[in-house]
Design brief:
Layout: H1 3-14, H2 20-31, E1 33-35, H3 37-43, E2 54-55, E3 61-62, E4 74-79, E5 82-87, E6 90-94, E7 96-97, E8 119-121, E9 124-128, H4 147-151, H5 156-159, H6 165-176, E10 184-188, H7 200-214, E11 224-228, H8 233-242, E12 247-250, H9 257-263, H10 265-270, H11 273-287, E13 292-298, H12 311-327, E14 330-336, H13 353-369, H14 386-389
Helix pairs in contact: 1-2, 6-7, 8-11, 12-13
Length: 394
């Protein structure tokens, strides 16, 4: 058994009240994944988009980035008729992939493949308004961010602009034919601070896409989430009034005030941490308590030289942030930071697996204490949050 596998088992023994599959999910997200050629051939992944989320044996879904440049990634392989998770040569567990939606095989009337218009997680349809964050132009991107790196080199006519309205309508129509498959839409895109007022251009993109999605519904609103920059109350009211959106999620990325300024220079320059928090509180008035979310990239708060020196200090800061936001009706969740190649902090060390387990449990317990349900970002929808997966065992 490899050293990392031993650590996984030791962690499971240390936290007996934490499901082993949740711990495995956290470790996969820390270390990322590599896929063998025979695995890719077996599942028939025939388009350049990312591989779908994993489904663990207990139903936990795992969204994890490919592990290029990571020396200790888990490997997903196809051996003896089974898909398995491997740590080096050591078999960890069986797994499977989320089935490919039927609409991925189709094209719009303009000839675009529908997988390029909308992505899919277990029960979620995702649409991107853009694949470029404007903060990168001035070197003001978040230090952990690999958004523009991820989409670099893609065909600009297909990936570099907001999809046309008719392409969106047709793609959603086809997706909804798969009855029972999808229960939520998520719309997101890169930050765009331009416009008559700052971020008006980003707001317009979201309204355009959300209105096109809404053409497929007879009801005023439909299950949906907007993942975006933090907007003014005027902009939030416009989005809510002009679309069928139900929930709003501006990711704060890091809670500590000084670390926010250092880690997220673009967000600090064009919005500021206080305004970011104010936007979430304004959104609670508009969208309602429990319909406003935010994520932070857990682990980057320990990046040196500015970050916390101990895991206990970092944990205390994050849980205080979660408590503060929960009191105001905002759900705070964690994303697992992995230092991706090409980012400003690619050579920094991650916190321990223990840290992520303690954090997931702490965030979950705080939200439960305040009656906040995060079903919009659980294992059935997002696949990205181990802390929200814990609502399955309440």
């Amino acid at each position: 058994m490899s050293q990392k596998t031993t650590l996984l088992e030791e962690t499971a023994q240390k936290f007996p009240d934490m499901p082993r599959f949740i711990i495995l999910k956290l470790d996969i997200q820390r270390r990322k994944l590599n896929y063998t050629d025979r695995l890719v051939e077996h599942i028939g992944h025939n388009h350049p988009g990312p591989l779908p989320p994993l489904i663990l044996r207990d139903g936990t879904t795992v969204l994890a980035a490919p592990g290029e440049g990571f020396k200790n990634s888990y490997t997903i392989d196809y051996v003896d008729g089974k898909i398995g998770i491997y740590d080096g040569e050591t078999f960890i567990d069986e797994t499977e992939f989320q089935p490919q939606p039927e609409f991925f095989k189709k094209q719009t009337s303009s000839g675009l493949p529908m997988w390029a218009i909308a992505g899919a997680r277990p029960q979620r349809i995702e649409m991107l308004t853009s694949r470029f964050c404007e903060f990168w132009k001035g070197g003001l991107q978040c230090k952990f961010c690999f958004w523009n790196i991820m989409f670099k080199g893609r065909d600009g006519t297909l990936f570099g602009k907001t999809p046309d309205r008719q392409d969106i309508i047709e793609t959603v129509q086809e997706a909804l034919k798969e009855q029972g498959r999808f229960s939520q839409f998520v719309v997101t895109g890169g930050a765009n601070q331009h416009g008559d007022e700052p971020f008006d251009d980003e707001v317009k993109q979201y309204i355009y896409v959300l209105q096109a999605i809404g053409e497929n519904f007879s009801t005023r609103r439909f299950p949906s989430q907007l993942l975006s920059s933090a907007f003014s109350k005027k902009q939030l009211k416009r989005i809510y009034d002009e679309t069928g959106i139900l929930s709003y999620c501006p990711d704060i990325e890091v809670w500590d005030e000084n670390l926010f300024k250092w880690m997220c220079p673009g967000k600090e320059k064009f919005i500021g941490r206080d305004n970011w928090i104010r936007s979430m509180f304004d959104a609670v008035e508009i969208f309602g308590e429990g319909n406003v979310y935010t994520n932070f990239v857990a682990g980057c708060e320990m990046v040196q030289p500015q970050g916390f020196k101990t895991e206990d200090e970092a944990l205390k800061s994050n849980l205080e942030g979660c408590e503060y936001l929960a009191k105001h009706g905002v759900s705070m969740m964690a994303l697992v930071w992995a230092p991706s190649p090409g980012t400003a902090i690619e050579k920094q060390k991650q916190p321990s697996l223990d840290y992520y387990v303690r954090l997931a449990k702490g965030l979950h317990d705080i939200r439960v204490a305040h009656g906040l349900d995060v079903h919009s970002d659980d294992y059935k929808h997002c696949s990205n949050h181990a802390d929200s997966d814990l609502c399955r065992i309440d």
